Amino acid sequence: MPSTSFLSRFSAWAGRTPSAPALSCADRTVSYAELTAMAAKFAPAVSHAGGTVCVPPRKTPETVALVLACLSGGKRILLPPAELGSDALVELCAQAGCSHLLGPDGDVVRLAGADARPVDEPGLLLTTSGTTGPAKTVVLDAAGVDRFLGWAADRFGIGPGTTTLSCVPLNFDLSLLDVWAALAAGACAGLAGPEAAADGSHLTGACRHAGVVQASPMHLRMLTESAKRPLPAVRHVISTGDTLPAGLVAGLAELFPGARLWNLYGSTETNDSFLHEVDPGEARARGAVPLGKPIPGVDAVIVDERGGRVTGAGRGELLVSTPFQARGYLDRGRGGLTPIGRPFRTGDLVERTADGLLFARGRRDDLVKVRGARTNLHEVQEVILRHSEVLDARVTATADPAAGHRIRASVRLRPRARLTGLQLRVYCRAKLPATAVPSTVEIVGHGITRTPNGKNPKEGILS
């Protein structure tokens, strides 16, 4: 959530270095002065909207300018998951109390049941895993984000003359580092749109002009497979959003010979929490990359299945408290916030070795990551079960080296139903983010295995 402090810093750079590049996107570069002027053009439309608005996170300079205009106008901005199904988007806007949907092309749509009340603090609203409709909406903390922007700029040398590379949609919390921290520090944020981010050759071209590259392991693997020669200009390569495979490290070291390689861990609720500088020799010897050590100011504990604290070597769920932590989950039904616990239960299982290093050991229950996005298999299953022609369904995930996981649905239809797997996937696209739509739907003619209490066998959730 960029704050009023962020706006003052951005404005200071616009006044001090107006011709310096603020954004680069494909063959287009936008200066700080041009971005400021673009934001000013959106001001009239923004002024007529209520306190909370929805801005589709298209990866363009116009969207960034629109967010700046909303912040200047004292608005709270919901950036919904990219490619969210239409039904789920309407429900998410209602949950957040959005009065209008604003588009960077000038479109202004007043939403049904709009809430025009002002908000206590402008900023961004991000969503959690982005699975089905009532996904939790996270209200970021202004002071916490300011602390994070400053930490990121200092840690990775982000400032005038530096270009960062942003590979994920603007609604991801990763954008706090590679977009908003860059603009707060007088740097240039390189915006790789969805087409460029999915094409290894385009992504490689963008890296040639970047000093700081933050990307998921999926994108980093794409780079190692597509680049024809090394990229020596990059100074920092940050892997985040999912587990960094040890087998990928050697290729990254060869591709980025002048860069320091980092593994960065966090969540939407807490922002980044752990940082580890990756050594290729260590990764090869251990066969895994550690999460690292807590960022200054972060407290972390591990608890076992009974809730007891793990004090030495051992395995359990990771709980963290950070100086960047969000204010809470937006709870419109109760008219306020549901605070996020301190410490926050991440749902991530970790193992601490005898030398004090932490390693990721998967997710609690049925949460998995697909292309860097948390996906709740149970919620996907519930969406399928709501279809009128579906009698029963079971959703599982299989490991995939590129996407992290692929989702598979086994579905039993009601008598005389004619629903096909393709039709069911189309139905899911309207209800779920693209990452949560099953890649395979199998129509079965027999019963689906359940435990005595009606749940999926735990060993079958992850195949």
Automatic annotation (TrEMBL):
Gene3D superfamilies: 3.30.300.30, N-terminal domain of ligase-like
Domain AMP-dependent synthetase/ligase: 120-330
PROSITE patterns: AMP_BINDING (PS00455)
Coiled-coil ranges per UniProt: none
Domain AMP-binding enzyme C-terminal intervals: 379-455
A UniProt-annotated Pfam family: AMP-binding
Segments crossing the lipid bilayer: none
Taxonomic superkingdom: Bacteria
Name listed for the protein in its UniProt record: Uncharacterized protein
Highest classification ranks of the organism: Bacteria, Bacillati, Actinomycetota, Actinomycetes, Pseudonocardiales
